[in-house]
Amino acid sequence: MGSDTEAEKSIQKEKKKVISLAPIAKPLAGKKLQKRTFKLIQKAAGKKCLKRGVKEVVKSIRRGQKGLVICVIAGNISPIDVITHLPILCEEAGVPYLYVPSKEDLAQAGSTKRPTCCVLVMLKPAKGELSAEDLEKLKTDYEQVADDVKELASDVI
Question: What UniProt keywords apply to this chain's record, in alphabetical order (predicted)?
């Protein structure tokens, strides 16, 4: 049997990329919203306005994080029990949330190599303050994503 052609190799790579989503992964972001959300996460990570991981996110939400926040959850988490309480917690606290298909993409956007199941984007950094210009840029991106999330959440309900 000969070697695989380039077309067959690309088909095999696509098959490996198939992601199994959790059944609770709703509202799931579409391609356009994913791109905007990842861009927002990248900017927030650069300004140190990001909490990564279930433990940090839950702690911030329970403490009543000041300012505008948005929770982004990966939809391909296994076991699913790790994140099942997050949507309820977000709804009780009034924090908008959405699911993205891949934890690897979420980690890449958050500037970390380790896959992460959720991030909390804040407009206030953990330490210090943002300049007015940086805050305005982050706020406009945040408002775009938050409006889309609210619209997406109303479609689900």
Answer: Nucleus, Ribonucleoprotein, Ribosome biogenesis, RNA-binding, rRNA processing
